[in-house]
Structures are given as C-alpha cells and as structure tokens.
Amino acid sequence: MINKFRDSVDEVLADIPDGATIMIGGFGLAGQPIDLINGLLRRNLTGLTIVNNNAGNTDEGLALLVKSGAVRKVICSFPRQVDSWHFDKKYHAGEIELELVPQGNLAERIRAAGAGIGAFYTPSGYGTTLADGKETRTIEGRDYVLEYPIRADFALIKAHKADRWGNLLYRKTSRNFGPIMAMAATTTIVQVPFLAELGDLDPENIVTPGIFVDRVVQVDSTNPKEHS
Amino acid sequence: MINKFRDSVDEVLADIPDGATIMIGGFGLAGQPIDLINGLLRRNLTGLTIVNNNAGNTDEGLALLVKSGAVRKVICSFPRQVDSWHFDKKYHAGEIELELVPQGNLAERIRAAGAGIGAFYTPSGYGTTLADGKETRTIEGRDYVLEYPIRADFALIKAHKADRWGNLLYRKTSRNFGPIMAMAATTTIVQVPFLAELGDLDPENIVTPGIFVDRVVQVDSTNPKEHS
Amino acid sequence: MSIGHRHPEKLTRAQMAERVASDVPAGAVVNLGIGIPTQVSNYLNPEHEIILHTENGMLGMGPEAHGDDVDVDLLNAGKLPVTEAPGCSYFHHADSFAIMRGGHLDIAVLGAFQVSQKGDLANWHTGEPDAIPAVGGAMDLAVGAKDVFVIMELMTKAGASKLVPELTYPVTGLGCVTRVYTELAIFDLDRSGNVRVTETYGGVSVADLCDMTHLDLIDATE
Amino acid sequence: MSIGHRHPEKLTRAQMAERVASDVPAGAVVNLGIGIPTQVSNYLNPEHEIILHTENGMLGMGPEAHGDDVDVDLLNAGKLPVTEAPGCSYFHHADSFAIMRGGHLDIAVLGAFQVSQKGDLANWHTGEPDAIPAVGGAMDLAVGAKDVFVIMELMTKAGASKLVPELTYPVTGLGCVTRVYTELAIFDLDRSGNVRVTETYGGVSVADLCDMTHLDLIDATE
Description:
The complex is a heterotetramer, with 2 copies of chain A (228 residues) and 2 copies of chain C (222 residues).
Chain A: E1 5-6, H1 9-13, E2 21-24, H2 34-42, E3 48-51, H3 62-67, E4 71-76, H4 85-92, E5 97-100, H5 103-115, E6 119-122, E7 136-139, E8 142-147, E9 152-158, E10 161-162, E11 168-169, H6 178-184, E12 185-192, E13 194-195, E14 215-218
Parallel strand pairs in A: 1-14, 2-3, 2-9, 3-4, 4-5, 9-12, 10-13, 12-14
Antiparallel strand pairs in A: 6-8, 7-8, 10-11
Chain C: H1 13-22, E1 29-32, H2 36-39, E2 51-54, E3 58-64, E4 82-90, H3 93-101, E5 107-110, E6 114-116, E7 121-122, H4 138-144, E8 147-151, E9 163-164, E10 177-181, E11 185-189, E12 195-200, H5 206-213, E13 218-219
Parallel strand pairs in C: 1-2, 1-5, 5-8, 6-9, 8-10, 12-13
Antiparallel strand pairs in C: 2-3, 3-4, 6-7, 10-11, 11-12
Helix pairs in contact in C: 3-4
C-alpha cells in the first residue's frame, strides 16, 4: 500500500544533506511551509542553495535560516524588502550569493525542470542586465533570452489537503509555486493541515498528482480561515 | 457586463475565414467538439490548417471536413488509423499536407504559443526522422531538438461547464488538449452542455480561466454520463 | 470622467489613477502594479467588470480585505490580503506568468523611474552600485501585456524629466510602454519613437513640455 | 510469479505480459502501451497499488469499462473506455506529457519492431515508403520513463532477430530501452551496448541466442 504520510517534521527532513539545493514554496505568508523551514533550521546544515520568491523577511523562517549561515546561495526574484535585514546584511558582507531571476522566468525555469525541457527562449529580461552574458535569439521579430531549468534536490511546500498517494489540493493564492516546485525536485516534502482518505479528493480538482510528492506531514494551520 | 455566451453554433463560427489555422480539441470522442466541427463543415471553407491529435476517423466530424476538401494541411500526431480512410485517400492523392509531431511535442508547442515561449529544447524525437533538419543541442549530456510554438487563429473545444466570463470545467479525460488550445488561439470557441451562473464554479477548480475563452455556445451532450 | 484635459491644475496622484481608470475598457483584464497603480482599482466602474490579475495566481481579484475578511492564503502581489470577486479563479505561478508572457492581459499599469520615447521602461533598479537588486514580476509584466500604461510624476524633485530620449536607469523592458500618465500630460508612445501629447494639465503647453523633456513632442491635444 | 526461468516452453504473449507484471515494484507509476503491453495490467497485484498513467491525461486508471460503466469522456490512450481507481487524477495534455518527458514515470512498457543492443527503440514506423506515418506518444514515452521495458517476439516470422546490433527500422528513441521481454529470453540492456541474458525459455541456451541475434550476449542467467 502506498503511504506517503509521515509522522513528524523532523523525520521528513532527516536526510537533507549539507550543500543541498532546496526549493521552498510560498509567496508572502500564503503557502509558506513554515514548520518545514523551522525544521530545516534545526538541522544546522551548511552550504544550502535556496530557491524561493524572496530571501526571507522579518525574524522568522527563511530569514533565520539565512541569518544562521546555513545558506550559501539564494535564487529568487525579490530579495530586497523593508524587512529583509538578515539577507541584506549577509549580502553586503559578501557572505551569500544571489542569483536574481525575473519572477516569471523563475517559475518557467522551475516548470521546465519538472517537464523535461532542456532550455527555452523567453522574452522576459531581454535587453536588461539580468540577461547579461546569456544567449539571445530573435524569433519571428521578437527578442528572447535562453534560460535553463532550475532543479532541486528537495522541495518543501505547503498544501491544504493530501491523501496517502500524495495527491494535493491547495487553497487560494497559497498555490503559487507549490505545484511547479513539486515537479522540479527529486524529493518533494509537503506540510498540510488536513489529510484525506484515498478517493475522497475529487480527481477533477487535484492540482498536484501524487506522482510529484514523496512525503506528507500533517501540521496544524495557524490560519483560522483554513479551518472554516 | 461580460457575457461570452452566444446563441448558436453558426453564429460563433461565422467569422472564420478561408485559410485559417484552427485547433480542434479532443482525443477520441472525449472532448471532441462535434457540433462545432459540423458547423465548420457547413461553412464550406477552403485552405484550412487543422491542428488535432488525429486526422479524422470514420465518416463523421473532422473526417468529413477532410473529405470535403476544406483542409489544406493537418498538424497532428496520429493520422493513420484503421478508420482514417478519408485522410488516407487525400494523403495518397497528394491533396493534403501532413506535419507529423510527436504527441508530447504537439502539446508543448501548443502550450508554448499560449505561454509566450519563443522556442524550447525537447528530448522527444531526437535522433528520429521527425527531427530531420531541425536544430539540436546537447545540454548537460542530454540531446534535445529545438521546437517552435504552434499558434492558431481559432480553437474549437468542448468543455463540461462554463460561466459567462468563459471560465471552464472539463470532465475526465475530455480535458486533454482543451486548456492548452484555449491558450494558443487568437479566438477560442467552446461548446458546453451546461452553463453556470457567475460565481457558481469553485475558483479552486476552474481549469481554464475565462481570459482564454472568447465565445461559449450551449449544445446538448449525447453522453448520458455527462448528465448524471 | 470628471477631469477635462487642459485642466488648469496639475493632476494629483489620485487623479492620475482616476484618469487611467477611465481609459480601461469594460471587461478588460488588467494587472495593477504596486504603489499608485494599485489605486486605479478605486476608480474602476463596478458595472464594467474589469478583471484584475495578480501574478501570484489569481484572476478576478476583489478589493483589499479588512477585519474578519483577512485570509493570509489570499494575498495580492504586494502581499496584502485581498478578496474574491465572483468569477475569480486560481492557478499556479507558471500558469500565471504564462498569462502575462503569452500576451493575454489587456493592460498592465506600472510605476516607473524613467520611460524612453520608444517606450523602454526603467522601474526595477536605481542602478546605485550598493543597492540590492530585486525585480519581482516587473520584467514579465513589461513584455507581456498588450498595453503597458505607466503612471509617474513627469519631473523629478531635482527638475529632470523622467520621460527621456534614452534611459539612464537600468532597463526593465524595451519598447513596451504604450502610454504615460503624468501630473502634467498624457503621452502616447510607439516603438518608432514618436511621442504624442494627448492631454495637458496645470496650464502647460506642448511647447513647455518639449522644453521640459528635451523631446520633439507631437501635439495631439485636439 | 508462476513461470520459472529456463522454463522448457516458450512464453506465450500472455505469459510475457505476466512476466513483466512480476517485475513492476509495488507503488510504481507505469504507462502501458497499446497491444500486448496493455495486458500487463491483468497480472498486476491489486495490493501493490501500481498506478497506471494514460497519456491523454490521467493517473490512476482503472480496468476497462463495460456495459453501464462505459463513459465516452473516460478513455485510455487506445481510445477504449476505462474506469477510475480511487486516488486517480486528471490533467491536460501538456501536463500529462510533462509527467513523461520530465522523467516521473517509473516504467513504460512498449511493443517494438526492433530494439538495438544499445537500447535504441523502433516501434513507430515500418519505414515502408507509402505508409502514412503516425507516431502518437511513442517518442515521448521512449525518452521519458526511468525504465522502458519492451515486450516483443524475439524472432520475426521470417526468422530474423528483432534484437539487433543496429536498427534498420526508423528510430523512436535512442538508448532508452532498459529491458526486453521475449518468448525465448529476457535481456537487460545498457547504453554501452552490453546485453545480459537474465532468463531463458523454451530450452534455448545463451549460445543459441547469440547465434539467433548475432550479438555477443552475456550470460547472466545464474
């Protein structure tokens, strides 16, 4: 019997090694797998590459992981925010590497990794400093930049409901990077507040099929709306 | 008020010109927009390019369109079947052009058109006669073929339910090419058996957002299961 | 629209947002950038059913949420809590940016540091050497929407025009801006570099604007 | 598994399907090609929860549908009506082929005209000049699955081996086949061209198979 349900956050993260590339879902608080991030912090790893839309905010989650020195490199679209002081400090000290990627190219490069696409031509970023040194091509009169997939060893994401095959539903804009990161990582780890019996999720509505998911851990949600 | 509901099949097809490129959804009977195809047949057009998984079967729908002489070219993955006699005859007579595309490249090229991707490297078809004359590239030790988007002037698809914004639900494997063809065509025309009030389709479950849909016409379904 | 062109007063930021709103056709699908562009939503006619896109995965975004309506799973691109409009739908990030990059949005409304006469946009980076760069979805919005409308003050505090012959700030996207709304005038742009002034405010003339911008502007106010 | 290796009888097609089924690990995600490969599903242990993928947009496909269960909106890749298994899910064609091309399927089981010793696959076209070509998802399945298992008769009716040094039929995919199940033997392949015989049937020896295939086979039957 396929059973991807696991008992604890610490268990699902136990085999992540130093130097791993880890995708972390979420856009703002929506879809942020905060319990998995905190579990990652407890692992005291080093040399990590983190793929996320941002680079950590305030004094929690990814920001603390950055502060801890666990993170060697961040691949993201929007590191600088009013409350990104831990990243800012590491960056100015030259202690963290930044690969800045336009948000849509970030999403498409993650999808490409999951979809087996070797590279693709995107118009986003053409003529900007973010395309410096990259191959370009004009196709039917439009200018494009060649971009390559972003893969990861692990993806940490948050969903709304999961069954034991790993089929996932999300909730509102917390869907964001979850489905594509699940496709792009060798091992996908999901935190959800709610578990479902196999067959209880409507097959028409499943957003991430279980084939993309390896481990599911149930963690209570702090969002009261998620319980309603 | 946005209202994409239209009154008749003939009305939604009235502006398709000779020489148009038309995507037609469906895989087998599932998702085949048979009433729209029959309407297209009544238009007596010429010089059409049809994008479909197949090239028409038995004596109905797309096969009759091929037989009628309306079709100049077919872009598809699987034209030859035991009951594809109308296409076979036209092909052997040199009266129809065939662009044969591996099914996954067909799907990805259609998606690329909808997603604004200029071209992409795919491993499918590498080293085969279907890649003859195409650019290739080795990326991280794997061999890829460069493929370009397939766009269309019109897409004719079938969905299960639509609201007046054109938001769509599909049913089981009739989803197939519908969502990506809707993205890739300048004008997307949908037949559905069921209409919904705006706001009645669960926003989590909408598969094709209305932004990709231009016209919706209600046509009764001949599948008794679709009414259950 | 309550603000006639050649209005004797300069437009306030709120009036600029209102002026943009009046140019959005009924039923259009629109992405409003962070800052003043977001205020455009305050002036859209609800009967026009303008559909708002937010790049973090939603079409049919409703107004900002307050009080009991706040749901941290329902945020806009500025990470503020919002609500649902009837007919809304959710999708993941790759699909959301496919909507943008694929040219399906009718209009993106963005802020800018500079716009060039050919419609090049600079709005993501000041170019200061020690600034940490952050781009978000700016470059994708720039290349994707059918029309890119910019709202910005025409003049910097130092008195320099932000509508320029050539960008001096880092590029966000080339040849993408189709119209610029400022406190003094509205400018229609095209990729060949022709700039047409369609409306003026604060009593300035097109000749005044030519002096201010160092551009050879076309008077299209009549 | 009821069929021991070095069985004195050749395998029937049904037995070949059964033999493949016994090699599919519990919980694997599998795509079964049209023809004999489809029969593999008859021999899968239901307790193993093998998840069947069909490229027209479904994971968790159940058995063929009959009578009142037939629903023309629920078809397999061969366009036959099928059913749902609990836990199934639907998706569109681009997502379905992303599953294949992205390397997420554990096993694809396919038929073949020929397989080369390096795992090159020919199963889409006979190469006859007047034949209308049709490829379907064959090339995507060939490149995508972690393992590609082929079920085929080893020998043509004319007595030629279909396991060959180099393909003479048009290529479907290069270096993709990892194992070949035939009526006389099972062959493990790798991209360097080493072919290991792991089981034989019908009383043939590895030496016999070397003669039949004109290949320098490695005896791995012990």
